């Protein structure tokens, strides 16, 4: 073995050790719905958090994002059947870290390169390294005559960087104007959320946080940077606040200060525009009402088979199955609830484009009736009503929303969902 080969082998061994430490520090390999070994509906048992070794890690791709100190090294590796993605920060020993989140110890290990020894940390948990990562992904960068890439502007450490817990990915916000999502566990196909967002943007749908940069290498989606709307309020909070105002006022909704009807109309308009944009972006497929009714019945049976025993429900599904009516299917969001929407001064927008409408085994998009998204959103609105009622009148002998006459006993299914689900 030549000295050069020995040096490369040692560097790879160190990287494998660092990645094993990163996986353990991140909580272990997660049970992902897109894991090839996880059947639809099954719950996989992830490997234990402790016990990862360098031998368990296979390096797939290593890239130097920023040379020097501080520096950034981007690593993609196979671990326990999943693909891990970590941004390793290289700091001078003795440099003061700027810790983000609840990390107790940022240090993953030590390394050495042409710039000398370095402490290796998880870059998304360090404010300065996070800003460096944003600049490395978005630019600006300068290439000198020798081909060396350097940052044109070295970002200063500020107080505007925050790490949002969005397990299993890492989500960073910068001065509440820019959001960067770093995908920690990669799919063997293009990320459906990225494809969904870019398609909507290209189709002219402007009710979303515009993409600034897509971080992609060797066909893998590593992350995405988006512009944020300043002062936006989550859709769940807007709806719940309105309902609480109605409950507290004792007046009908149209006479209360927090009537949600105009907002609901605007929200519905936004969803309709989203489906028209998805139709333009992905096209439509032939389907019929009977097929959609069969799919709806199967979905309900997986969650609450007893609900299908209701006479009115059974009669409605039976009539739909017998109908010979065409109903084109389009690509839908697939998990559209109030928590994935938000309200800003410009109106309602889609705050989260991470769709649930994909096959977890293949990543293929599912085409359904747009009413599937509408049903999800109506369920979420009903759940908000039950949450507001639980705050106002949690006792069994007070089942009516004050002032609006909505008898919650007529919709007991809402009450079986935990209040913290949004």
Structure, described:
There is one protein chain. This protein is of the alpha+beta class. Helices cover 32% and strands 24% of the residues. The protein contains 9 helices and 19 strands. Strands 1, 2, 3, 4, 5 and 11 form a 6-stranded antiparallel beta sheet that branches. Helix 4 (235-249) packs across helix 8 (371-392) and helix 6 runs antiparallel to helix 7. The protein starts with a helix and ends in a 7-residue tail after the last helix.
Question: Which short descriptors sum up this protein?
Answer:
five-stranded antiparallel β-sheet, alpha+beta, 422 residues, 9 helices, globular
Could you tell me the radius of gyration in angstroms? Answer: 25 Å
**What's the β-strand tally?**
19
> Largest beta sheet, briefly?
6 strands, antiparallel
Count of helices?
A: 9
On the 0 to 100 scale, the average pLDDT is 82
Task: Tell me the span between the first and last alpha carbons.
Answer: 58 Å
Low-confidence stretches: 33-49, 148-157, 398-422
What fraction, in percent, of the residue positions are helical?
A: 25-40%
Structural class, please?
Answer: alpha+beta
Percent strand: 15-25%
SSE topology string: HEEEEEHEEEEEEHEEEHHEHHEEEEHH
Dominant shape: globular
